[in-house]
Amino acid sequence: MTVTDEWISGWAGRMDALCSTFMERFASEFGYPPDENRVTRAASPATVEDLPDDLVTFYRRVEQVSFPDVGAGFFVHPEGRTVAGMRGGLPTRIAGSREDSVVVFGSDGGGALFALSATDGSTVYRLPPSRVEGDVYTAGAVPPEVVASDLAGFLSLLERELAAMI
Question: Can you tell me the distance from the alpha carbon of 73 to that of 66, in angstroms, rounded to the nearest whole number?
Fold first, then answer.
């Protein structure tokens, strides 16, 4: 599914509503206050066009996603960090059991990275902690896994994870 501005706006609105309920119930459920769990809207539209189309559309509406208290934590990095990662500092290729060019756009609280295939522009991988040399992620004992067929599927996964916590 191609991500549209309207789809992202609807997703962000649903996430806001779920997050509000989650934050209201968190302390009574877990016995301590929650961290900041939020979808931060973009203050200005995405300016970089060398990202895959779905990420450009996403960043036009959303600056970042931070849900440290959902599961092991889910984070979609700000556009600047995603672009900087493409230019060094984050892997841009997967080697080993699976080969692909990728754009790392997020992470979880356990050290894994979320990456969108630059080859097909849609497949979303979870790259568990492993060796990274230069821009190459080499699969270790736990291989990379496909967590969604596209960015919309990944964002829907985040929505389901948040809803399950309520």
Answer: 8
